[in-house]
Amino acid sequence: MTTQTTTTALIPMEAIREHWQGHRRLTRRVIEAFPEEAFESYSIGGMRPFSELALEMIGMAEPGINGILTGNWAKFGELEHEVPGAGKHDKAHILRRWDEITELIDRLWPEIPEGRLEQVETAFGLYSQPIYNTLLYFIDNEIHHRGQGYVYLRSLGIEPPAFWDRR
Fold it and tell me: Could you give the percent of the chain with pLDDT greater than 70?
């Protein structure tokens, strides 16, 4: 016996985009809060510098929005932050890439077909799940790394942006 389920979106697509972009706006402010000299080198307990964490978020978001829209997912090992020499770690470069990807998300999001987020695909050659789970992973990963950035900023004596302010 086959059971067929029908789902109804609980959160409108535009609200999902705005939620993701709200997190991206907050993370951008965390990047801006870092002193340049600490951004590329500061570490606690063996954690990566925040520049590397930001590159990872960039390296997932751009191919992520493209994969969500087209079904063409970059493979693990080909992502921007994984390619040797592919990314600069300075704040100006990171912020420029961050803004480019923010605009890309806003431009491509309306093209995502209805029901697309419920389709099961293997993102980055690793994660076979509904696309909405992959998108939630992008957001969760960003929150996790932003939390590391908050620890770094506080240890440097810098008050980070309010975690709840995603405007």
Answer: 87
Residue pair 121/95 in contact (Cβ under 8 Å)? The answer is no
The tokens for 7 are 């789902």
Q: Token digits for 146?
A: 């932003």
Helix ranges (DSSP H) in the chain: 13-33, 36-39, 50-70, 91-108, 131-155
Q: CB–CB of 34/153 below 8 Å?
A: yes
Structural domain boundaries enclosing 125: 13-155
In a domain, 79, yes or no: yes
Choose among 134, 132, 140: nearest CA to 8: 132
Q: Considering its fold, how many domains does the chain have in total?
A: 1
User: Residue 122: enclosing H or E segment and its boundaries?
Assistant: strand 120-123
- Residues of the chain below pLDDT 50: 1-6, 82-83, 86
Q: For the segment 106-155, what is each residue's pLDDT rounded down to a tens digit?
A: 999 999 999 999 999 999 988 899 999 999 999 999 999 999 999 999 99
CATH number of the domain bearing residue 49: 1.20.120.450
